[in-house]
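Incident log, support desk, overnight shift.

02:14 A customer reports that sequence design results differ from what the structure should imply. Their input is reproduced verbatim below. On-call engineer (initials T.W.) acknowledged and began investigating.
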């Protein structure tokens, strides 16, 4: 019998404990494991190399994304760092122009010093990926949706383009989650996750993941996972598995709420534009309608009108929390230009459309009516303050 997605979330890698019958698998805190004789053990020898709790998490991660190999890390950036360590000086990577600020910083200020160069393109046109390809290019790195402008990529066409040039196609699936799309089934070679976000879902654990069907690449990554050692603790792995159990339920509810909120924002006084793939005017609406079965995701970006006082807007919110991160049970809101993308040069941010008035909202599991009411009063306060100052 083929399990449905929600069933996989609950059961993959999480069978009842064989010794005690405990329904919830135990947390294995041991750092080392007894060996019968040197080199002969029961599958585990040292917890940096492998750990029963991490193994269980990696099993469910692979199942969620339809991958045969999954690796868990101490953070999303630890996962990205390990993947980029498979490259060598002189290699070139084509990236989507609207990258998460931390990923941009990793490329621009860390791996650039080790001889890895990048070219950022608007990958909504796969032809831009092909035109940016050079003899030194080995990888294409995209997000879909992107952070924070929510651009949608045609993953199958991009993967086809990358493979035609002999490269590796990497997709950061943090925003969409495997509830909405599984990039490996669309042609991607590697899926990246900040497991801190929707997979964990409760703002209480930091983690990352890489999933692939490429056995040769997985072997390199497994070596680097152990050699570089950026692994999660057993307790972090257990927390992530606990969060994943409700992933399908949470994301479905968050999607429904976000659709309602985005529709309201589209005509709200004080809002200049709304970026949400579920709205008909969004340039990626047709793609996500087919791929995501009518859902638009749970992330909304919107721009306040220029006369709105941004500081007053954020201070006036009472239900929605101003904080970095996303994908949690509580709704989180931030100003990318000052927070998640603050490390990106101002001229580069503004050229992309990440202005000082662009707001990113991660819709939680609260009642959407309460969230709309909170946004409404905060917008009114921001406009009222602006009118008083004028």
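02:41 Re-run completed on a clean worker. Output:
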């Amino acid at each position: 019998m083929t399990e449905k997605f929600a069933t996989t979330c609950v059961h993959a890698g999480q069978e009842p404990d064989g010794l005690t019958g405990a329904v919830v698998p135990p947390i294995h805190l041991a750092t080392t494991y007894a060996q019968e004789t040197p080199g002969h053990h029961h599958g585990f020898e040292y917890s940096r190399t492998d750990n029963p709790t991490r193994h269980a998490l990696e099993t469910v991660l692979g199942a969620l994304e339809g991958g045969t190999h999954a690796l868990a890390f101490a953070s999303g950036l630890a996962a990205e760092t390990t993947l980029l360590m498979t490259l060598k000086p002189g290699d070139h990577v084509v990236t989507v122009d609207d990258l998460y600020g931390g990923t941009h910083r990793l490329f621009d200020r860390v791996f650039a010093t080790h001889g890895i160069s990048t070219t950022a393109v608007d990958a909504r046109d796969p032809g831009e990926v092909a035109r940016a390809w050079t003899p030194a290019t080995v990888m294409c790195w995209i997000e879909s949706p992107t952070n924070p402008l929510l651009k949608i990529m045609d993953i199958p066409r991009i993967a086809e383009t990358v493979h035609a040039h002999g490269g590796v196609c990497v997709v950061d699936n943090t925003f969409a989650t495997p509830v909405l799309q599984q990039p490996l089934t669309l042609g991607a070679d590697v899926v990246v996750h900040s497991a801190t976000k929707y997979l964990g879902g409760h703002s209480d654990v930091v983690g990352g993941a890489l999933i692939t069907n490429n056995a040769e690449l997985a072997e390199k990554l497994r070596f680097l996972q152990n050699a570089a050692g950026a692994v999660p603790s057993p307790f972090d792995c257990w927390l992530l598995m606990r969060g994943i159990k409700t992933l399908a339920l949470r994301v479905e509810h968050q999607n429904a709420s976000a659709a309602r909120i985005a529709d309201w924002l589209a005509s709200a006084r004080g809002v200049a534009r709304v970026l949400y793939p579920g709205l008909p005017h969004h340039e990626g609406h047709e793609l996500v309608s087919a791929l995501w079965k009518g859902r638009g995701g749970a992330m909304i970006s919107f721009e306040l009108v220029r006369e709105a006082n941004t500081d007053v807007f954020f201070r006036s919110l009472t239900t929605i929390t101003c904080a970095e991160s996303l994908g949690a049970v509580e709704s989180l809101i931030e100003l990318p230009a000052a927070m998640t993308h603050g490390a990106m040069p101002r001229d580069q941010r503004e050229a992309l459309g990440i202005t000082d008035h662009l707001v990113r909202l991660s819709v939680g599991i609260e009642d959407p009516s309460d969230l709309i009411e909170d946004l409404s009063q905060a917008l009114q306060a921001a406009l009222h303050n602006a009118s008083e100052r004028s």
